[in-house]
Amino acid sequence: MTALLSVRDLAVEFRSGRGPVQAVRGVSFDVADGEAVAIIGESGSGKTTLAISLIKLIPRGARVTRGEVLFRNDRGTRDVLDMEDDELRRFRWHEAAMVFQSALNSFNPVINIWAQFLDTARAHGMRDPKAVRGKADELLELVHLEPERVLRAYPHELSGGMKQRVLIALSLLLGPRLLILDEPTTALDILTQRAIIDLLRELRSRLGFAMVFISHDLSLAAELADRVFTMYAGRIVEEAKVGDLFYQPRHPYSVGLLRAVPRVSGELGALASIPGSPPDLVDLPTGCAYHPRCPFAVERCRREDPSLVSADSPQHRVACIRWQAVAESVGSRRPAEAL
Amino acid sequence: MAVRDVTAPGEHLIELDRISRTFVTPGGRITAVDNVSLALASGEAMCLVGESGCGKTTTGRLLAGLLAPTGGRLLFEGKDVWAKRGDDLAAFRRAVQLVHQDPYASLNPVRTVYDTLSAPLFHHRRARGRADAVAQINELLRRVGLTPPADFLPKYPHQLSGGQRQRVSIARALTVDPRVIVADEAVSMVDVSIRITLLDLLLALRAEFGVTIVLITHDLAVARYFARRGRIGVMYLGRVVELAPTEALVADPAHPYAAALIGAIPEADPTLTRTKERIPLRSAEVPSLLEIPRGCSFHPRCPLSEAGLCDVKVPDLLPVPGEREVACHIAVRARTATAVSA
Fold first, then answer.
1. What is the pLDDT averaged over residues A153-181?
2. Is 0.80 surpassed by the pTM of this model?
3. How high is the mean pLDDT of chain B?
């Protein structure tokens, strides 16, 4: 299958007083049409920088130092990073839309929801208010809101969960084939989180868009992803089908993350934090960036920065020279079983 | 780890006795905490969980004596705290310490770790001179795992990681040898990879010094880990709706709201989380504190609600078999009936 999105050797740096911050360091991956991919990692792993680079929303002070973000549509394949403003404006919202983590507060507070829909539509060439209204009604109903009530409301009159629903509806206004979501459930209460997760699953099965979502929350990946990428210090260190990542993790950092998260149902299991803290992206450790925290590290890990290689299957790739030792130690977990 | 089990009655260290707190807001009067009773034994580790607006943070502040109740009493060693004066009140304030959820906000950015930790030592006359303060602070930093201490003394908050800042906050609470620590979302703002260590640190303080710890969190998985040998209290719209031994609560919640929460929580396990039993609610919207539904405040959302009962009568928090208490007409009826017939 041809990929909808192909990222090739992408690297992004930020300027800082202490030197370049290497937020993304040579990342490559594909996302197929209709596929849901989760990128998991902690703060400072580079996952948000990676996500915004996918729609060339490069923040001030940052620059792409190498790589390509190839997006395929009916007319062929384009590198998003080569797009000029006009083409980018079309690409964003029409082809790929993003729901931001901070978006709950980034509505324009002084205009109502209808005006937000209208503004977005106008900026992207939908000039007929009747058509916009029809589409808005349809999308708001899809996200289980009452269009009449919500379109009249101002952002402050909506709860966090309703705002998130409106944002998801708005992001789908121009029918994108890829939805990028940054921590889509992070600031929400449990029952609201559940409703948003179920909503995303339902929308995806009805509309068939692909999703890339960024989260520090492993359970969101467990809920929604077909494949999961683990990011650490600006690199993808493991990429696997969701079941393989959770039940047969092969990178020590993935194993560490899974062991660090308690669950509510099933066995509590033995839990432990990962020792140490994430590396300084200005002054990275030599060799594998994870080696100072890694219980599997050997002398070679200090010298060699490992690339992704196939582990148990060609689709399961891991950037660790010790993955076999990890496999021996972890083996295969069954569902709802402790590591 | 030596861990004491749940309390026998009569040896409560700190107790909320039918406590309430109302606030006057521009929209009207709201009751953030409504008639909550909660008793903690010395050395107990307990969690209060609930969604935003449930009153858990206000309950924590009432427990720590930082907020005066508008009804009911706060008892410490059986005595009414708000009737205390002078030295007695000062002693209570030392005995109960609050660790704030946001170490970015609660540590003064222009003070070094030494400044932050020495101030309470001098204020409470626990240190005689700088050398003594440094010696005590070194010991505190070792206790919270910031070693070697000398590396941390001159540091400012911005030079520390989130986890290290939270450790400094815990060390600050320890400067006055507290008997109770109320930790409000103490691990919510740190990375997932280090939460367990911080929870273990709090549990170690409890095991080592018999400190009573109340952890307030929205995260039931964190609560389950922390209070695995203790109890969890679930709050909804200002009330405790269920109070139960942790494993009993997560395996078999009695209150329909607790059951809905547990069923809704996404788990870090694809098979488990995609096959969990869900309790569908009748409404997704949380009522406003300004218009709390009459009767049981959960009834408009509750799948078990009975007309003429739940929409009329406020359920009290009543004991049911299994050392648990639940505020639900239906659950109490079902569980006491089962107990009688068995």
1. 91
2. yes
3. 90
A257 vs B contacts (CB less than 8 Å) = 192-193
What gap in Å lies between CA A247 and CA B162, rounded to an integer?
30
Q: Does some domain include residue B180?
A: yes
Distance, CA of B138 to CA of B146 (rounded, Å): 9
Scan for tokens 């201490």, then name that residue.
Answer: B149
DSSP A313: S
Q: Are B239 and B18 in contact (CB under 8 A)?
A: no
For residue B7, being part of any structural domain is answered with no
Question: Which residues of A fall within a CB distance of 8 Å from B285?
Answer: 159
State the alpha helices, DSSP H only, in chain B: 56-63, 86-95, 103-106, 113-123, 129-143, 149-152, 162-174, 192-209, 220-226, 246-251, 256-264, 270-275, 329-341
Last residue of a domain, one of A225, A256, A278: A225
Pairing between β-strand B71-76 and β-strand B12-25 as defined by DSSP bridges: antiparallel
Structurally, chain B folds into a number of domains equal to: 1
**Which residues form the domain of A256?**
230-330
Confidence tier at B161 by pLDDT (50, 70, 90): confident
Which residues form the domain of B44? 12-110+156-341
Which pLDDT band, with edges at 50, 70 and 90, does B9 fall under? very low
Q: What is the pLDDT of residues B33-83, one digit of tens each?
A: 999 999 999 999 999 999 888 999 999 999 999 999 999 999 999 999 999
**Residue ending a domain, choose from A191, A225, A259:** A225
Give the model's pLDDT for residue A1.
Answer: 58
3-class SS of residue A290: coil
Count contacts between A and B (CB, < 8 Å).
131
HSE at residue B20, side-chain half, CA atoms within 13 A, is 11
Q: Does B191 touch chain A (CB under 8 A)?
A: yes
Looking at the predicted structure, is the pLDDT value of residue A317 above 80?
yes
Considering its fold, how many domains does chain A have in total?
2
C-alpha–C-alpha distance, residues B333 and B342, integer Å: 14
Strand B231-236 vs strand B239-245: parallel, antiparallel, or unpaired?
A: antiparallel
The rounded distance, in Å, linking the Cα atoms of A185 and B337 is: 40
Instruction: Give a yes or no: residue A292 inside a domain.
Output: yes
Cα B195 from chain centre: 16
| The pLDDT value given to residue B6 | 44
Average pLDDT value for residue range A43-64? 91
- Residue A96's Cβ-count burial label (10 Å; 0-12, 13-18, 19+) is buried
Q: Which residue of B has its CA nearest to A248?
A: B269
User: Do A222 and A266 meet the contact criterion of CB atoms below 8 Å apart?
Assistant: no
Is residue A337 domain-resident? no
B250 in contact with A at a CB cutoff of 8 Å?
yes
Q: Which of residues 197-236 of B touch A (CB under 8 A)?
A: 197-198, 200, 218, 220-222, 224-225, 228
Closest of B283, B299, B318, B233 to residue B54, by C-alpha: B233
Asked if B325 contacts B318 with a C-beta cutoff of 8 angstroms, the reply is yes
**B23: how many CB neighbours lie within 10 A of its CB?**
14
